[in-house]
Design a protein that fits this description.
The protein has nine helices and ten strands. The chain is α/β, with parallel strands linked by helices and 304 residues long. A hairpin with a 5-residue loop joins β1 and β2. α3 crosses α4. The protein is globular, with a radius of gyration of 18 Å.
Length: 304
Amino acid sequence: MDSIAFEIPGAEGQHIRGDVHAPGAGGRGRAPVVVILHGFKGFKDWGFFHHLAWSLAQAGFHAVRFNFSHNGVDESEAEFPRLDLFRRNTWTKELFDAAEVERAVGEGRLPCAAKMDPSRLFLLGHSKGGAVALLRAWRGAPAAGGTIPGGNAVRGPGAAGRCAGVVTWNSIPATDMLFARLGEEGVARWRERGFIEIPNERTGQRMPLDYAYVEDMLANRAALSVAAALAALPCPALFVAGSRDEGVPPEASRFMARASGGKGRLAVIEGGDHVFGARHPWAGTNPVLEEAIAVTVAALREWA
């Protein structure tokens, strides 16, 4: 069995579509679950995600990969046909979606639920998804409307139980990195125009993002603090970084490992770029990616 598709409601009633990769039939009892979170301009079928999920299943885990409800991908699974959704995306919508997937695991609403152990639920996030994973492990579920009331999320992922561990791959270290790259003048132009257009060099698309993205961050600044999440992580964490990542240099993961105190540790993959040598469409694995997967599986097995 390769994977089984699922669909559940997400932020603003939009759809979260995903796939569950189950371990082989030889396992006994319930197996731990790894929820995989993609990054900015990412999607569940990009490059290495299918191979990563398959590898985790081979290692004895249920692997759940999904599209955030506002990532711009619809049921056709073509690349970003719903830019109208992408432009309305926010951090709290992605936190809400992640919480809903965790809740679906805990309530037995995903495929293979009878074989899942929600008490051993792990989060694995790439790039922006790494920051979402850290915030989810720390703060828990936003309210049903997709926002965090009063900047203070409910602790714990609802029915799924406490997160048992977090792995990040080349995670961004702060939720305001886009602001920093644009600068004050760029953010001011964003406010005046009401949206910005972010080029996707691979697809050639110009992807709009509303100023509501900024307003959401300003309204929930405390709850969206990765630094605060790192200082109070309730679970172990592994920060995997590519030594040649130019988009998010390995110093970011090194900083996060230090900031998480005794809860976190660092694994630098020599020769790894932001996507550990993977490409889209998928062209096969490579030694750098396999090393990233190996250190990830080793940590998950230790925690499980």
